Amino acid sequence: MKEHNYTIPLNEALESDVSCFLCSLEDMLSARALEYYMGAAVMEPNVRIETNAKGFCRLHGEKMLSMQKKLPLMLALETRLDTLLSELGKHKKPVRGREKTCAVCERIEGQMDKALENCAWLLKNEPAFLEKYLESDGVCLHHFYALCEKLGRRDGALYEKLHAHMVKKLENLRGDITGFTRGFDYQTAPKENMGHIPPRAVETLTEKKG
Ligand SMILES: [Zn+2]
Ligand SMILES: [Zn+2]
User: Fold this and answer.
1) What is the distance in A from the centroid of ligand 1 to the CA of 110?
2) Which of 13, 70, 134, 200 could be bridged to 25 by S-S, CB 3.0 to 4.6 A?
3) How far is CA 109 from CA 26, 159, 172, in A?
4) Ligand 1: distance of its center to the CA of 206 in Å?
């Protein structure tokens, strides 16, 4: 079997009981990216050139604060500010959009792009992986579209299988939500076996951020 960087984590994520195995892979990559930028890398000149240029978004800045990594964060933001101040000096006014870039977001996006390519390759070339996928709960809508883009439409038979799996998942979710709303008791908490339905609905239908 051809070796790919993300084959093992993809297989592991696919075996876990989650509503989207690509979201759970993304969670893992996100945690690793935060550890990376708030670890020894903050002292590496190449990494500082990158974080000085891109900075961090609010979500990832807040995650770093909650990790109690205040010193590495302040070191990174100290020199990030130098970049912004020098730009301000050059342009004599704020450069729009400079607060929107994020080194952590870009690292995760780059890694997820490769993981999606790898996932598409495995679905096309590894029957055991496809079988495991079809037996699992699959992916959220966002990752379904992202995966379809990587597959291309040339492999019609494979696309049809994945599409049918996604439709079935959404139909099941629709049924579960109806079960939840009908069984919802305003006096007490949701019925015991229904507590997982609202988070699953949100995870399946929305795009994960960070
Ligand atoms: Zn997902
Ligand atoms: Zn970010």
Assistant:
1) 16
2) 13
3) 9, 24, 30
4) 8
